[in-house]
Automatic annotation (TrEMBL):
This is ZIP family metal transporter. It comes from Halalkalibacter kiskunsagensis. Belongs to the ZIP transporter (TC 2.A.5) family. It is found in: Cell membrane. Coiled coil: none annotated. It holds the Pfam family Zip.
Length: 242
């Protein structure tokens, strides 16, 4: 239980790191784009090599396919809602995000972070050890969210202290979500774990395709293709040695 909470908190801690940089430093868009591109590759690798591979191995093809499509669909519906409220740039790190987008970005990040953290707890149930690939992928992908949202909060007039506290709350939610995933999901229920894993994979694929990769290319240029491939290779290597 403590390990589940700890790893969920570690994965969510990059939100706080990104927030601190957004508060106190001006980060070049290209640097953030390169980090985002690498994180995209790692996330795709985690979703493919860890979540989908395990889901199909344990549960066949039907239920993982359904879970995958439901996860992708729900993410897109949430993305449409959040975008209309001004949170379309929560994965981005522009210096001038949408006016009054800070809280919308914050809410959108919570929607992303909770199911991701639950998967960390599930990976502990399945493998008796944390999935390094998933933790690293979530850690990398969270960084631009904390960075961009903090910029939005500053422009909305939030104090530095309040911004920091908000992101600490999200980190705690990530830790608690991982713990709850470990405690309340029956490790003998292969079907439930299979669907959750495939569901998360679908959400991850939809997320990187619609938010992270387009923004990374816009800000970083063609080199992001190589960095994404490098991230995917990193996920493969981590999976191999895991």
């Amino acid at each position: 239980m403590l390990l589940a909470a700890m790893w969920g908190g570690i994965a969510g801690s990059s939100l706080v790191l990104g927030a601190l940089l957004g508060i106190y430093k001006d980060i070049p868009n290209k640097v953030s784009a390169f980090v985002m591109a690498f994180g995209t590759g790692v996330l795709i690798g985690a979703a493919t090599f860890e979540l989908l591979a395990d889901a199909t191995q344990d549960g066949g093809i039907l239920y993982p396919s359904i879970g995958f499509l439901v996860g992708a669909t729900l993410f897109i519906l949430a993305e449409l809602f959040i975008s209309k409220k001004g949170g379309q740039e929560r994965k981005r790190s522009k210096e001038n995000p949408s006016t009054h987008s800070g809280m919308a970005i914050f809410i959108g990040t919570i929607i992303d972070a909770i199911p991701e953290s639950v998967i960390i707890g599930v990976s502990l149930l399945e493998n008796k050890t944390v999935s390094w690939v998933i933790v690293i992928a979530i850690f990398i992908s969270n960084f631009p969210e904390g960075l961009s949202s903090s910029i939005g909060f500053k422009k909305d007039g939030y104090s530095k202290g309040k911004i920091f506290i908000l992101w600490v709350v999200v980190m705690i939610l990530s830790s608690v979500s991982s713990l709850l995933g470990f405690v309340f999901i029956d490790p003998s229920s292969t079907l439930v774990i299979t669907i959750i894993g495939a569901f998360a994979a679908g959400g991850i694929f939809a997320m990187v395709s619609s938010t992270m990769l387009p923004e990374a290319f816009e800000e970083g240029g063609p080199i992001v293709g190589f960095l994404s491939a490098l991230g995917l290779l990193t996920a493969l290597i981590l999976t191999y040695f895991e």
